[in-house]
Amino acid sequence: MHAVILAAGEGTRMRPLTESIPKPMLPVADRPLVAHTADAAVAAGADRLVFVVGYEADRVRDHFGESYRGVPVAYATQDEQLGTAHAAAAAREYLDDDFVVLNGDDLYDEDALTALFEQCPAVGAYTVEDPRPYGVFSIDDGVVTDIVEKPADPPSSRVNVGAYHFPAEAADWLTEVDRSDRGEYEITDVLARVIDAAEVSAVPVRRWLGVGRPWELLEANEWKLAELDRHVDGEVHERAELRGSVVVEAGATVDAGVVVEGPALIRSGADVGPNAYVRGATHIGQNAHVGNGVELKNTVVMRETNVPHLSYVGDSVLGERVNLGAGTQVANLRHDGEPVETTVKGERVSTGRRKFGVVAGPDAKTAINTSLNAGVVLSAGATTTPGESVLRDR
Ligand code: TTP
User: Fold this and answer.
1) How far is CA 206 from CA 113, 133, 194, 330, in A?
2) Bridge partner list, 289
3) Which of 144, 245, 318, 366 is the most exposed place for a label (fewest CB within 10 A)?
4) Strand, coil or helix: 62
5) 55, 84, 191, 211, best to mutate for ligand 1 pocket (most atoms within 8 Å of CB)
6) Where is the Nucleotidyl transferase domain positioned along the sequence (predicted)?
């Protein structure tokens, strides 16, 4: 079974993090986001992976090469992002049998994908409390009878998670859908045609996370860091303490006086300490530096980023090559207890999280004693002045 993985997206809702990395390549635990989808597809029995690439395509190609975990890999290019059906159609030349299509920015439990591969036609269905923002299925005795987008009055609580097993004839239908109201060629319109033609099974998905916005990158890391088994291949000082599920990759160092509470990952080339406190689900990327007197909690620190002295950073995402001046402090909680808001595509939106810190784009730099308010987004290359309180995006 061929698995088509849609990875051409730019990830505009993830900006500024996606200014230096395409969304599918953002780090989630010890691999890029899309590698989790690829791994799940391989575990489910995919005999070929076809990545549909576009934005920063070379980053995806360089990572997966011609073969991944023993499975041949092909690439199809989508030059313009005209929708998910348009993206899958780019892989048409590889589709001469029934096939699976997966969003490259969603995390699924592996059992769900295995079940999806075994049944055709089938879709993944995940149960949510409030289905109104999603594509919602009508389901009768395990068979999908309809899908409606963002309904005011949802027919069920089971929603589409971007995982489809289509029969061979649907490959031709990928190019036969009309543009939707939002101007895209939608794979859900292909699904609607399959639903009309055949009995489509609703495969229960136990766990799912769509990773579109910065706090979802934190949630993705919370999920996947918790699945890592403790192993220490780097250098850990005898007076450092690693508690719980902590991974220190070969080539990483942890200095004296450091306490790391798992789940946490310290990637190769990173160095931590002396005297740092790392807790929550924290990801410290390749060649990052976390120095003296720094506390990091539930944070993603991407590669080559520096948090050298006396800082607190909680529930935040620091992009690549960020530098925090000594004493930079991050707020991650509102005094009124309401969920923290942040900016997505120019709009203030609720993260739904009581605790959320900041998003720092690649190459952002704070000066000494900068205070960053909860929900602030620093754009790529942004700077602050010494002692500044940053209350608005920069
Ligand atoms: P989206 O999350 O809707 O799009 P995106 O990844 O570009 O992100 P944003 O909305 O923040 O800009 O896409 C769902 C999946 O489909 C994702 O894996 C990207 C992929 N995709 C394509 O490959 N080509 C396309 O034309 C579109 C619209 C999506």
Assistant:
1) 10, 19, 24, 34
2) 271, 306
3) 245
4) helix
5) 84
6) 3-222
Buried-state track 231-243, b at ≥16 Cβ within 10 A, e below 16: eeebebeeebebe
Residue 86 near ligand 1, beta carbon < 6 Å = yes
Burial class for 31, CB neighbours closer than 10 Å (0-12, 13-18, 19+): middle
Domains and CATH numbers, the chain: 2-212 (3.90.550.10), 219-390 (2.160.10.10)
231 catalytic, yes or no?
Answer: no
**Are the CB atoms for 111 and 16 separated by under 8 Å?**
no
Question: How does residue 9 score in pLDDT terms, banded at 50, 70 and 90?
Answer: confident
Give me the helix-helix angle, 214-226 and 33-44, nearest 10°.
50
Q: For residue 276, what pLDDT is reported? A: 98
Q: Looking at the predicted complex, does its ipTM rise above 0.90?
A: yes
Question: For residue 369, what are the CA distances in angstroms to 221, 325, 326, 365, 366?
Answer: 28, 7, 6, 12, 8
